[in-house]
Predict the structure of Reverse transcriptase zinc-binding domain-containing protein.
Amino acid sequence: MWEIRTMSRKLLDKRVLLTHFQKPLALRDCPSRDLGVGLGLLNSIRIPLKFWDLTWRCFHGKLCVRDNLKCRSSEERGCPREECGGLLESMDHFLLQCPFNTEVYNRVGASIHWPGLAGLSYAEWAYGAFRGLGGRDRCTLFLVSLVVRYHTWNARCLVSTQRKILPVDEVVRNILGDLVKVRSLEYERLGTGRASLLWRGFSFSVP
Ligand SMILES: [Zn+2]
C-alpha cells in the first residue's frame, strides 16, 4: 500500500497496464501527423481535470472495456448492455457501435448543432483527428467529444457494476449540463472575445 502512495503517476499507470490489460500501450490508426496534433490536444489546459484520466486512457486505447482486460473468458467479454446480446465489447464497439451510445450521439449532436458527432471515427474520438472542422475550433471539438464520452462511459459502468440503466434523456441532459459549465468557465477565464471565438459554431443550453 505504501508503495502506491509514493509511486509516481507514470509508474502506477504502467503497473496497472501490465497487470490488468491484454496488450501493452499502443496507438492504433494513428499516423504521426495525428499523433502530434493529438498530443497537443491531450495536454491542453482546456481539458478540465475530471475528464483527463478517461481522455488519456482512450488516447492510448486503454478504456476498461471487457475485450481489453485480462482474466476474462470469451463469454465474459460481451458488452454489458442487454440490447447488444453479448457482442464483444471492444473499444470500437463502445465508441462507434453500441446502440445506446449512438443514440446519445445523435441526440447531443442535434442539440448542439454538431451532427457530425454521430459519425466520428476511432481516430477522431481517440486523437481528435477530425476530418472536417466545419469552421469550428479543433480543441473545442475534442473537448465536446470527451465530455460526451465521459458520460457514455459512466452510464456504461453503471450497467456493468450496478445493473442500473440510465435513460438516454438523462445522459443527454448531463452532457449538456457539463458542456454549459465547461463553456461558461472558459468565458470567465478567457473573456468573451477569445471564448466566443473558440466556441464558434456551437449553440446549446441545458434542456
Ligand atoms: Zn453495446
